[in-house]
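step 3/5: co-fold with magnesium ion
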Amino acid sequence: PSFTVIVPAAGVGKRMLADRPKQYLKIGHKTVLEHTLEKLISHPRITRIIVALDPQDPYFDELPISQADWITRVDGGKERADSVLAGLTALDSHSWVAVHDAARPCVSLSDLDKLFRLFENNQGGGILAMPVKDTMKRAQSEDSKRVSNTVDRDGLWHALTPQFFPLAQLRQALSEALEQNVTITDEASAMEWAGWPVNLVEGSERNIKITRPDDLTLATFYISQEELTCE
Ligand code: CTP
Ligand code: MG
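step 4/5: write tokens
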């Protein structure tokens, strides 16, 4: 089977402190968004991508890739979850769907393979994730700088993307969670809230989300290495 990927790309990238949203910053001679979309579509099982964009976005139409027939553009929303739901609503088929941040251009094809194996396993959907390495501290309160205690690191994971679920389940979970004002930071949190299983698929730590300026430097390094090994 083939899968559709929804790519939320309607954010402003505040923490990046740049003159434009981070998905339009350059890695080499292409934007972050082009790298992400080209990586995804190069996977044999991905045949269609829905990109959620700011309705006022002046950059996307300038990209050659915007004309590709495998791309569908939808208007994103206020929060990431609203953008994802807009993408889910634009889909009619009843298969599985993956959601992948525009700001994660370094995802690998082998991690996508690993994640897509959930489809055959019949144990529910899941997410790429990474075991936490550092010792974790909880502060006494949200703005306190004093440690309350050490959180047991065993069993703690970083949630990455893609996140991969049966479309009908995800659409219902996400829309109900948003209606009830549940805090939704990723697709998995809506699925957890709705009581569906979420599997952790260990992925590469190269799959960083470009968030702050240094992340772009690191992503540029990873992608230049990929380009060297592909040629
Ligand atoms: N995103 C989106 N719609 C929103 C907010 C975010 O589609 N209303 C997308 C971003 O474009 C990004 C992904 O969700 O690809 C992950 O969000 P994040 O890393 O937080 O990006 P921004 O919100 O753009 O960055 P910041 O939080 O620093 O402003
Ligand atoms: Mg954000």
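step 5/5: annotate
DSSP finds seven helices and eleven strands in the chain.
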